[in-house]
């Protein structure tokens, strides 16, 4: 079986490489010649742990091209994994690229092809794609299917190879049989394959991300309550997470959710629901609370600085929206740093992987070689992303480098007991402040 992956963004590239690891011949197609040229040289355009090694190991089964028609024409299964950014004005998913890909696929595909939507799309899109293909190629038989991805940046390969489940939306036996064959290697792990309707598969993706976003927002609000009452949000999160009905994942307080999925997907499903007359009030509130939280982070830092940061230097550790990725889309840093700069602060920053991606978005920032370099002369040090390199810093060395003595840990990287006696004011999320 030969697979064509249309789109070499995060989802398309990871999925294509992993399918080649399954043993399939895969061609990844994209219209960006510079990206394809880099991939042909073995260069991975995103930071995802292990992806470069996996790509090199499967070089004999994996190819890259700008010839979309050629890729589609030789494939048994065509996955559409192009971008679906938020549409300006209403927040719904922009399906322009999906529809354009469908038209190209229709012209080049051979009879019997299964066209699978891998992109995150609103309910009804897969059926629309089927209609577009049928109109453009009325004499060709084909099948359509919806196969949403559930990949976490930073652990995407593990998620693909050992998923909790695979969701497949189909409306004919051929599409189901082909996709079961595509995911056959997972049968050895007894991975559940959820076969359902096109619409159910589409909604499942949005529902999953919206639920997780709400879970993050919930624990952040509990953290706010803990700061007022003297509670410890981490103890509370552990206690409620041990309830099997709740679970401990995504109960980690912090600056709010960001990245390429949660903000976009919550807005999209909320906008769609409003348009259809079935507003999702819980998700609407989740969006509003999260945006307010991120917007208020700079105020919290200013308050710790005594009410003003004018003329002060602030070290920011972690720019990516999460560790193990260079993705800065919707990262808290892109809101916090400009707000601090506007208030008169100078910013020294470090991130192990995201500095290059973030530099055009954050003019005026001084980029540093490591955490200790960033701390030089800083009045306040802020941890925004919990990279492993920040988990065992030498507090004495940090204190000597800094001009001030305040560390604001937005990810609760350190235990409170470990921060006692360090001569620093340690401020974290949903816990007591340690003021040595």
Can you describe what's shown?
- By secondary structure, this protein is of the alpha/beta class.
- The protein folds into three domains: 195 residues, NAD(P)-binding Rossmann-like Domain (Rossmann fold), CATH 3.40.50.720; 89 residues, Orthogonal Bundle (N-(1-d-carboxylethyl)-l-norvaline Dehydrogenase, domain 2), CATH 1.10.1040; 140 residues, Rossmann fold.
- Helices cover 41% and strands 14% of the residues.
- The protein is built from 17 helices and 15 strands.
- Helix 1 links the parallel strand 1 and strand 2.
- The N and C termini lie far apart (64 Å).
Keywords, separated by commas or semicolons:
436 residues, alpha/beta, Rossmann fold, N-(1-d-carboxylethyl)-l-norvaline Dehydrogenase, domain 2, seven-stranded mixed beta sheet, six-stranded parallel beta sheet
Write the topology of this structure.
Elements: E1 2-6, H1 10-21, E2 25-29, H2 33-40, H3 51-57, E3 62-65, H4 68-73, E4 77-80, H5 96-108, E5 113-117, H6 125-136, E6 142-146, H7 156-161, E7 166-169, H8 173-182, E8 193-196, H9 198-229, H10 233-241, H11 262-275, H12 281-295, H13 297-304, E9 313-317, H14 333-342, E10 346-350, H15 355-358, E11 366-367, H16 371-375, E12 380-383, H17 395-401, E13 406-409, E14 425-427, E15 434-435
Parallel strand pairs: 1-2, 1-4, 2-3, 4-5, 5-6, 7-8, 9-10, 9-12, 10-11, 12-13, 13-14
Antiparallel strand pairs: 14-15
Helix pairs in contact: 1-3, 5-6, 9-11, 9-12, 11-12, 13-14
């Amino acid at each position: 079986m030969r697979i064509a992956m249309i789109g070499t963004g995060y989802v398309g590239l990871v999925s294509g490489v992993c399918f080649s690891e399954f043993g399939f011949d895969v061609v990844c197609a994209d219209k960006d010649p510079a990206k394809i040229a880099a991939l042909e040289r073995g260069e991975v355009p995103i930071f995802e742990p292990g992806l470069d090694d996996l790509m090199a190991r499967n070089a004999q089964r994996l190819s890259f091209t700008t010839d979309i028609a050629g890729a589609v024409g030789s494939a048994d299964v065509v996955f559409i994994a192009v971008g679906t950014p938020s549409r300006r004005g209403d927040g719904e998913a922009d399906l322009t690229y999906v529809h354009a890909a469908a038209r190209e696929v229709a012209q080049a595909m051979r009879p019997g092809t299964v066209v699978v939507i891998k992109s995150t799309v609103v309910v009804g899109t897969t059926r629309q794609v089927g209609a577009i293909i049928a109109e453009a190629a009325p004499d060709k038989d084909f099948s359509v299917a919806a196969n949403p991805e559930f990949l976490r940046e930073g652990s995407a390969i593990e998620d693909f190879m050992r998923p909790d489940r695979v969701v497949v939306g189909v409306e004919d036996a051929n599409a189901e049989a082909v996709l079961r064959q595509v995911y056959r290697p997972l049968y050895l792990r007894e991975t559940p394959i959820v076969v359902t309707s096109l619409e159910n598969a589409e909604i499942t993706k949005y529902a999953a991300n919206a639920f997780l976003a709400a879970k993050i927002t919930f624990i952040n609000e509990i953290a706010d309550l803990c700061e007022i009452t003297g509670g410890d949000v981490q103890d509370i999160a552990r206690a409620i997470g041990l309830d099997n009905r709740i679970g401990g994942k995504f109960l980690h307080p912090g600056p709010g959710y960001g990245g390429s999925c949660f903000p976009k997907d919550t807005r999209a499903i909320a906008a769609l629901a409003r348009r259809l007359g079935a507003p999702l009030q819980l998700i609407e509130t989740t969006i509003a609370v999260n945006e307010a939280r991120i917007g208020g982070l700079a105020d919290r830092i200013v308050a710790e600085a005594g009410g003003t940061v004018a003329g002060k230097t602030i070290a920011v550790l972690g720019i990516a929206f999460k560790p193990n990725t260079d993705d800065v889309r919707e990262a808290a840093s892109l809101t916090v740093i400009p707000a601090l700069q506007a208030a008169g602060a100078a910013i020294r920053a470090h991130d192990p992987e995201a500095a290059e991606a973030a530099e055009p978005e954050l003019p005026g920032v001084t980029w540093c070689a490591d955490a200790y370099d960033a701390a030089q002369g800083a009045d306040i040090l802020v941890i925004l992303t919990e990279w492993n390199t920040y988990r065992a810093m030498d507090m004495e060395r940090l204190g000597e480098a800094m001009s001030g003595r305040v560390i604001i840990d937005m990810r609760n990287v350190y235990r409170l007991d470990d921060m006692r006696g360090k001569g620093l004011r340690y401020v974290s999320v949903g816990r007591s402040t340690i003021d040595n």
